[in-house]
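We both want to read discrete structure tokens more fluently, so let's practise on a single case. Would you write everything just below, so we can both look at the same thing?
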Amino acid sequence: MSDLPLLDIVIFTPLAGAVLLGLVPKSRVGAIRIAALAITVIAFAFSLALLADFDVAAAGQFQLGSSAEWIPSWGVGYVTGLDGISLWLVLLTTFLMPLAVLASWSVEKKVKPFFVFLLALETGMIGVFSALDMFLFYLFWEATLVPMYFLIGIWGYGRRTYAALKFFLFTLIGSLLMLVA
């Protein structure tokens, strides 16, 4: 495992950006959009550093992660790392998020919460791809549900409230079954 928790920086950069974005007045729509784009580009740049540090010769080993005890009595820890597949999933996520921000540039309703939820969703997705502890994976998986619920329910089309509730319930029940298994 690396001395510099670069993967943790990639995971939590969007979340830190979402918190900072929360401090921007909602009337400054242009600044919110530019800040969201900048945060996603920064996360992508950090993920490119992951690619540069990844040792392809160490096939089959998790790299660039960190490990810390969390709930030792349950055997739960904060353990992250990347293999050859999850590296590309993290890179793909961080590459697509600036494009998603640009594609949603025309959102006019509740701009600030939209981009805060989008950044929180990015943190959850990257966390899912890099979690090596099953409980941590489950937490990141569940963390993606909340922003997705609001993104679908507020900015969706048609029967968006019904769709958001159905998405949330089906995914929650499925993930509870996954946790039990």
